């Protein structure tokens, strides 16, 4: 049996004069791939392209060997796709069970008994078994995110596209969701966009960093983290040589610099350190970008 | 994680059933049904001509039915990022919503039978129309608007974003019917005015003269039903057009052109057929 895959060749997407993605080339295989990048980097656009919600302006996208530009093939992709968008609106009056059941019907689960069993299963996976009868509008933000994730998990799809699935979810549930996703990723392609670098570090074998619509890094998480080795250190004061530094809870400053230092107290770099280093230590730049956009 | 998908089973029927259940539980639709049934019960003997009462089912089942299906169509809009990437295409979802119009349609049929009980077709309140034409008038005024209004609501919901669009359209149609009815009172024998009066999803066919006799206006109630059904077809096609792609889209556009031509022909026939001048019985 051929391995499931997604490939993008020189993919670009523009919205009017705004270029959201440019020259993106990727091959994705089963496993969890994390997508990192600042706001406006093109993460959501990339995920919408993969989820067939948006056509590319240029380049070729192939999902499981099917072309999303061809309507019949697009339907074929959608039969094997789970997608959790960044923002999901819920119809008034729907309970969690009713909403997921409705989406299950749209996903061609027409046999009521099998559908209901599947809805109960996915609600159980996201820890909402006991809240199935609760109206979604009365749920917390984190619970709503889990309802949105539950519908994406219907049928354990071979392709699972998740846009910030853990935003607003409490730490215990995040650990549960990591376990669920890791299990699914044994056979499925899971692409996960998030601002939570700890989720990527805990879950993903591979990370892609997007910046201004282009791929800045694509490789193993450990390699990216390794790039920060020797470049993260603690000091009592902010180090002028550091690209980024901030006061930690211990009262000491965590410094990240571009050059390897020998005369300082090194600490184990995290993925977040490596990400900031890759972006040029740019919290200020990111803030400036957001103001500009 | 051993779930398997039941691919390929037709989604349309179970989806239409699901949407129909949502419509039946919709407060606006429930209000419409209850009000349509309560407005014509009782007082049959006090009605001088049939048009005094048979507009109510059209207003409630058709007009309020339109608002209910408009809400139904719009209600899933917020979930479009999720629903839009399922294998069930938007035209299929639209078709399921269109099938929901069967519910108000049957309410209209039941209302017609209920109507015929206090106002049998031989009754003087129908004026000089033949018994079959009287039935055609009732079908065109009670049953078809109950189908067409909800279909129009689906089409509107697919294309218009403004939340109050269905209510505004309801007011526009209501105002237009009133306007052309007033115009007809002063130009009862005019063919263009008759066409203008019938250029609407609902039209009156009779008026009570000062003497107490009932006057039937010119126009064919049978062709008027044809015109109304053509409008229903156009509403369905316009609704289905949203999100249609490729060959399906071109077929819908072709069908729309045919339905449009058919509608114009039926409207002209409705205005020029039947009585060619106002007849008082």
Describe the protein's architecture and organization:
The complex is a heterodimer of chains A (293) and B (281). With 293 residues, chain A is α/β, with parallel strands linked by helices. Chain A has helices at residues 43-50, 71-78, 96-106, 112-125, 141-153, 171-184, 197-203, 221-226, 271-278, 283-292; strands at 6-15, 18-28, 31-36, 58-63, 81-84, 159-163, 189-193, 206-211, 214-220, 232-235, 244-247, 253-256, 265-266. Chain A is built from 10 helices and 13 strands. In chain A, strand 1 and strand 2 form a beta hairpin. Mean pLDDT of chain A is 88; it is low at 282-293. Chain B has one domain (12-280). Chain B is 65% helix and 3% strand. Chain B has 11 helices and 3 strands, in the order H-H-H-H-H-H-H-H-H-E-E-H-H-E. Chain B has helices spanning 12-24, 27-40, 55-75, 80-83, 90-99, 102-116, 131-159, 165-186, 191-198, 221-241, 246-272; strands at 206-208, 214-216, 279-280. In chain B, helix 2 (27-40) packs parallel to helix 6, helix 3 packs parallel to helix 7 (131-159) and helix 6 (102-116) runs antiparallel to helix 7. Classes of the chains: A alpha/beta (293), B mainly alpha (281). The A-B interface holds A 51-53, 71, 75, 78-79, 81, 83-85, 87-92, 99, 102-103, 105-112, 114, 118, 121, 148, 151, 154-156, 183-184 and B 1-11, 14-15, 18, 75-79, 81-89, 93, 245-246.
- Termini separation of chain B: 76 Å
Strand percentage of chain A: 25-35%
Shape of chain B: globular
Biggest sheet: strand arrangement of chain B:
1-2-3
Shape of chain A: globular
Strand content of chain B: under 5%
How many separate domains make up the residues of chain B?
A: 1
Q: Decide which structural class fits the backbone of chain B.
A: mainly alpha
Interface with most residues: A-B, 38 and 31 residues
The strand order across the widest sheet of chain A is 5-6-7-3-8-9
Instruction: Enumerate how many helices of chain B there are, as a single number.
Output: 11
Which series of helices and strands of chain A comes N to C?
EEEHEHEHHHEHEHEEHEEEEHH
Give the number of domains of chain A. 3
Reading the helices and strands of chain B in chain order gives HHHHHHHHHEEHHE
What is the share of helical residues of chain A?
25-40%
Label the structural class of chain A: alpha/beta
Considering DSSP H and I runs of 4 or more, what fraction of the residues of chain B is helical? 55-70%
The description of the largest β-sheet of chain B is: 3 strands, antiparallel
* Rg calculated over all Cα atoms of chain A: 21 Å
Query: How much is the average pLDDT of chain A?
Result: 88
């Amino acid at each position: 049996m051929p391995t499931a895959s997604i490939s993008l060749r020189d993919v670009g997407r523009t919205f009017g004069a705004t270029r959201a993605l440019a020259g993106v080339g990727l091959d994705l295989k089963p496993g969890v791939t994390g997508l990192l990048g600042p706001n406006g980097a093109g993460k959501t656009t990339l995920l919408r392209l993969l989820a067939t919600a948006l056509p590319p302006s240029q380049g070729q996208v192939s999902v499981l060997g099917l072309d999303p530009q061809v309507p019949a093939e697009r339907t074929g992709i959608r039969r094997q796709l789970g997608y959790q968008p960044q923002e999901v609106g819920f119809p008034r009056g729907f309970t969690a069970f009713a909403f997921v059941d409705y989406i299950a019907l749209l996903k061609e689960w027409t046999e009521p008994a099998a559908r209901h069993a599947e809805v109960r299963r996915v609600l159980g996976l996201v820890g909402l078994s006991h809240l199935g009868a609760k109206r979604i509008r009365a749920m917390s933000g984190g619970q709503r995110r889990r309802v949105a994730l539950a519908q994406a998990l219907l049928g354990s799809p071979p392709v699972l596209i998740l846009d910030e699935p853990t935003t607003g979810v409490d730490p215990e549930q995040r650990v549960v969701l990591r376990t669920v996703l890791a299990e699914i990723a044994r056979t499925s392609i899971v692409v996960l966009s998030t601002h939570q670098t700890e989720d990527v570090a805990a879950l993903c074998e591979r990370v892609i960093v997007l910046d201004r619509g282009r791929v800045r890094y694509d490789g193993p998480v450990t390699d990216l983290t390794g790039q920060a080795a020797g470049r993260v250190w603690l000091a009592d004061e902010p180090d002028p040589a550091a690209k980024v530094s901030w006061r930690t809870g211990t009262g000491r400053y965590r410094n990240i610099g571009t050059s390897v230092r020998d005369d300082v107290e090194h600490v184990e770099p995290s993925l977040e350190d490596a990400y900031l280093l890759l972006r040029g230590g740019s919290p200020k730049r990111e803030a400036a970008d957001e103001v500009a956009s | 994680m051993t779930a398997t998908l039941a691919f390929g089973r037709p989604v349309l029927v179970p989806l239409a059933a699901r949407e129909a259940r949502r419509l039946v539980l919709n407060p606006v639709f429930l209000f419409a049904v209850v009000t349509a049934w309560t407005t014509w019960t009782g007082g049959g003997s006090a009605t001088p001509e049939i048009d005094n009462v048979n507009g109510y089912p059209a207003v409630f089942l058709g007009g309020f039915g339109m608002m209910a299906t408009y809400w139904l169509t719009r209600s899933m809009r917020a979930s479009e990022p999720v629903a839009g990437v399922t294998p069930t295409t938007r035209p299929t979802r639209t078709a399921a919503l269109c099938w929901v119009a069967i519910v108000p349609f049957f309410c209209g049929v039941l209302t017609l039978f209920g109507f015929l009980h206090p106002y049998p077709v031989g009754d003087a309140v129908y004026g000089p129309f033949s018994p079959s034409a009287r039935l055609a008038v009732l079908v065109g005024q009670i049953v078809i608007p109950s189908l067409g209004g909800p279909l129009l609501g689906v089409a509107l919901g697919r294309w218009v974003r403004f939340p109050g669009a269905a209510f505004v359209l309801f007011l526009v149609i209501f105002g237009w019917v009133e306007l052309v009815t007033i115009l007809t009172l002063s130009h009862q024998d005019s063919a263009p005015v008759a066409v203008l009066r019938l250029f609407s999803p609902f039209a009156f066919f009779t008026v009570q003269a000062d003497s107490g006799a009932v006057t039937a206006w010119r126009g064919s109630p049978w062709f008027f039903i044809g015109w109304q059904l053509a409008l229903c077809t156009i509403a369905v096609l316009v609704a289905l057009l949203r999100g249609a792609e490729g060959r399906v889209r071109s077929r819908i556009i072709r069908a729309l052109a045919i339905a449009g031509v058919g509608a114009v022909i039926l409207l002209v026939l409705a205005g020029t057929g039947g009585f060619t001048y106002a007849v008082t019985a």
